[in-house]
Design brief:
Blueprint (H helix, E strand, L loop, with lengths): L2 H12 L19 E8 L7 E9 L6 E3 L3 E3 L5 E4 L5 E5 L3 E8 L13 E6 L3 E7 L3 E7 L4 E6 L12 E7 L2
Parallel strand pairs: 1-7, 6-12
Antiparallel strand pairs: 1-2, 2-5, 3-4, 7-10, 8-9, 11-12
Bound molecules: copper (II) ion.
């Protein structure tokens, strides 16, 4: 299933409002949620890291995941919310699951034979690898407020050094 297919399913799931919330989605501080952040990664010359969607997971079990299909949200209780750009916004205490799809660009700026894009965000992610044409996922709990930069650590293009973003943890 491609990225478009996954987004369509996520939107359909998010439109259902009768789910019982384990953790009510809240922008108020002090109510931790499990956030799923969907992202794409491609060389900076094309777009770099981009967030495509956010969703609150409203069940205790994780969606099934595979590198080829990504997260399977069929039957998974969740509620989408708008998340864009490349700043991951969460709150202290949130469990955060990132789902990042590695786009294999046809742009000639992409260096040949790269295995994918890297993902490093200290102290939460030491050395993730986002394969080209596949999904990478990581889950952690945001334990302290602050701004946490993330970056690709695989030299993927001339502008590789710009392939960065931030996670902002609020409510500390
Ligand atoms: Cu990269």
């Amino acid at each position: 299933m491609g990225l478009i297919g996954l987004v369509v399913i996520a939107a359909a799931g998010g439109g259902v409002y009768y789910y019982a919330y384990l953790h009510p989605p809240s922008s108020t501080c002090g109510v931790p949620s499990h956030r799923m952040i969907f992202m794409t990664a491609v060389i900076f010359e094309v777009a770099g890291f981009q967030i495509t969607n956010g969703a609150y997971l409203n069940q205790t079990t994780m969606p099934t995941f595979s590198a080829t299909a990504g997260a399977n949200l069929t039957g998974v209780k969740h509620q989408n919310y708008t998340a864009t750009g490349n700043t991951i916004n969460v709150q202290v205490g949130d469990t955060v699951t990132l789902y990042i799809y590695g786009i294999n660009s046809t742009n000639t700026a992409q260096y040949p034979k790269i295995v994918g894009h890297g993902f490093v965000m200290s102290p939460y992610v030491q050395s993730g690898v986002i394969p080209l044409g596949k999904w990478y996922s990581v889950t952690f709990t945001a334990t302290q407020a602050g701004t946490f930069p993330y970056f690709c650590n695989i030299i993927c293009s001339d502008k590789h050094g710009f392939m960065t973003g931030n996670m902002v943890v609020s409510c500390g």
